[in-house]
Amino acid sequence: MEAKPIKEIPVGKDWLYEPKWDGFRCIAFRDGGDVALQSKSGQPLERYFPEIVDALKALTPDAFILDGELTIELEGKLDFDALLQRIHPAESRVKRLAVETPAAYAVFDALSLPARARLYEEPLKARRASLESFAQKHLLKDTRLALSPATSDIKTAREWLAGGLTHFDGVIAKKIDEPYHFGDRNAVVKIKRIYTADCVVGGFRLAKDGKTIASLLLGLYDDGGLLNLVGFVGSMSAAERTRAAELLKPIQEGPGFTGAQPGGPSRWGSREAQWHPVAPRIVVEVQYDRVTGDRFRHGARLLRWRPDKAPRQCTMEQMARSG
């Protein structure tokens, strides 16, 4: 069941609110002695999370289908980077990480339970009641398994969105009278927690025409005074691209970034290979959602240019609250 992004939490008696976890979405299947973990894209995950397979195999019921989120907590925070480390071909490494950084499975829906094989056809309020009963009897006996919170109280949902619990990065709202919708967004919406940061433009990339600025490369200063690449802005209006060219092309000079540089190991691949450094004089305020490995996980959104902000004021401390 997919979620449609919206800007504000919907209000009404027909909604149930859940936290949005920062992890891997996962459907768990148990059939006798067999357990399968399936990603949102339909890929198998069980070989990467053997500790969760073991936990589900240890449950007394031997037939169920659950929907939830795989997470890893390190130093009191959910660590998405630690999850990414699991997706590795070496079985020995996966087994070692399963011991060193064990995952947990937060369950928020049930598609099938003992004596209710077609639970997915029932409305959410019935599925949730069945799941809570199942969790009390079975899930809560193992710290690797948990029942994800849910509430009908809009005040609590707004507290989650505001950052009341750092484990969550938003809110999911589901219509309580709807059955489980496979593969569509008709009954679920998501509202993500959003952050802003003031960043130094350390370089830019050009579009295929070789003239238009395609994206801004963003940097923040660390405690040692080095400017580190932390992300990029790619979505801009034609007017903003023109303004970017006017501001940045006259100050093209190296090195641009003095710490982490474009073109090194990166989840962005080769897109950063061709870039043009600029003097660290231009500051922009951007909007982003999450941080992974000292970088914005996704492309940031340009909010405004900040000529009033000194570049040296743009430090990595801004990212600490969203890591």
Can you describe this structure?
- With 323 residues, the chain is of the alpha+beta class.
- The protein folds into two domains: 18-153, D-amino Acid Aminotransferase, Chain A, domain 1 (2-Layer Sandwich), CATH 3.30.470.30; 195-322, Nucleic acid-binding proteins (OB fold (Dihydrolipoamide Acetyltransferase, E2P)), CATH 2.40.50.
- It has six helices and 19 strands.
- The strands form five sheets. A five-stranded mixed sheet has the order 4-3-5-8-9.
- The radius of gyration is 23 Å and the shape is elongated.
- Residues 264-272 have low confidence and may be disordered.
Topology:
Layout: E1 4-5, E2 15-21, E3 24-31, E4 34-39, H1 50-57, E5 63-71, E6 73-74, E7 77-78, H2 80-86, H3 91-100, E8 104-112, H4 124-137, E9 145-147, H5 154-162, E10 168-175, E11 188-192, E12 195-206, E13 213-221, E14 227-235, H6 238-248, E15 276-277, E16 283-288, E17 291-292, E18 295-296, E19 300-305
Q: Please state the average pLDDT score.
A: 90
Oligomer: single chain
* Highest-level CATH class of the largest domain: Alpha Beta
CATH fold call of the largest domain: D-amino Acid Aminotransferase, Chain A, domain 1
Which percent band covers the strand fraction?
25-35%
| Main beta-sheet annotation | 5 strands, mixed
Which homologous superfamily in CATH is the superfamily of the largest domain?
DNA ligase/mRNA capping enzyme
What is the count of DSSP helices, taking H or I runs of 4+ residues? 6
CATH architecture type of the largest domain = 2-Layer Sandwich
Instruction: Give the helix proportion (percent range).
Output: 10-25%
Name the strands of the widest sheet in spatial order: 4-3-5-8-9
